[in-house]
Amino acid sequence: MKYFLASFLLMTVCFLEAQSFERNTVVYEDTLGMDLYTPKDVAAPRPLLIYVHGGGFSGGKRDESGHLAFCERYASKGWVTATISYHLTMKGKSFSCDQPVQNKISTIFEAARNIHQAVAYLIDRKEELGIDASRVVIIGSSAGAEAAIHATYWKETMAGILPSNFKYGGVISMAGALLDARWITKENAIPTAFFHGTCDNLVPYANAPHHYCDADQTGFMMLSGSYTLAERLRSLDQQYYLMTDCGGGHEWAGKPIQDGYISMIDDFLENDVLDGRHRQTHIIYHEGKRSCDSGLSFCSE
Known about the structure:
With 301 residues, this protein is α/β, with parallel strands linked by helices. It contains seven helices and twelve strands. It has a nine-stranded mixed beta sheet, sandwiched between helices. A three-stranded antiparallel beta sheet has the order 7-10-9.
């Protein structure tokens, strides 16, 4: 028994010593919180990575185990990381074809502003936390991806929160989309990574209505999905990283942070964001089993 207890205590001490980061939970705005991970013994200034959960703007939690594990992974690599909450303005409501389009737009706008507020909170403490404010990256899943990509490219969302000349260091969209691809310009383009399935029936892969609503429905809202946004960046000779799963669906809102796929995020962060490599990357998977008429030649090869 004494041997077992001594072994247990030794393993506990070794585990605690192996932790290369410190975790704290803080409130950054109103009642909105974040779980913040700060690396230990890593020279400052350090890049910042913000995770924004999905859930249709009505649910989801910042502190789900997968989100925490994601933050721990990159904190151990020297990033300051945080998984944040945002206002769930659609809680108890539909975010589909029966929701008036203006309510949908207002919801996305509010969530994007919450992201900026979280970033502003952290940048205000950049000396204490050792943050490099020029290398702030947002990653979002589904609704969180829509919020992240709008925070990046819808300039009005930033007003009164961050300086007018503030620019993110990168953005990762997992099954997200933007209201208008023309909001991306040569001047505001940043390293952008997209993960998406061509047969996503909620958030379109290319240009299509949100949830594929009919034109006569109150929730009809056109969106520019990952392929359209990558093409926009290509036309502007700006860098992008697009992962397409031919026949894949909305599961790509969570797949990229799982084992077997997260190396693609590593690649993007290390080479495109930190090393500043200018490249236009398109990786094509054929894992999906769904059938849809994408009209994309590379999916029929």
